[in-house]
Every structure is written in C-alpha cells, then in structure tokens.
Amino acid sequence: MPRSAKAARIVRLVEALTTGLGVRDRVSLGRRMTQSLVRAYQTERRPVPGWVNDLHAYFDHGRRL
Fold it and tell me: CA–CA separation, 44 vs 31, rounded Å?
C-alpha cells in the first residue's frame, strides 16, 4: 500500500471499482488514472505531488512517469 494516505484511498477506490475483474484490469485502471493525474498537473505547469508519485510507484512498479 502507498505511504501517502491520499494515494492509499485512491488504491482502495480502484480496488472497489474493479471488484470481480482481474488484477490486470485493476493495474490498468490504476496506471491510467495515474497518467491522467500526471498530465493534469503538467498541463497546469505544477509539480507532480508526492502522493501521485506514490500511486505511480504502486501501479507501475518502477516505470518512469
């Protein structure tokens, strides 16, 4: 589970949304959500918050943002 409380809540939400689906679907949704968050912060020219980096680490297992 991510260190950040906000990231942990999002992980639980993704798990709830994908109940009955496979792990691949859960990870895919988590990755897409994380990518959308990163793009949104970048579009606004704002730094990506640590909790988004926690999500990235959780769902992407070391892949670059």
Answer: 20
Indicate whether 65 belongs to any domain.
no
Rg of the chain taking only CA atoms, in angstroms: 12
Cβ 4 vs Cβ 12: under 8 Å? no
Q: Which domain holds residue 41?
A: 5-60
Q: Is the pLDDT of residue 1 over 90?
A: no
Element (H, E) at 38: helix 23-43
Kindly state whether residue 12 falls inside one of the protein's structural domains: yes
Tokens read off for 29: 């949704």
* 34 to 2, 4, 30, 63: CA distances (angstroms): 13, 14, 6, 12
- Residue 47, classed as helix, strand or coil, is coil
| Statement: residue 59 has pLDDT above 80 | yes
Report which DSSP code applies to 4.
Answer: S
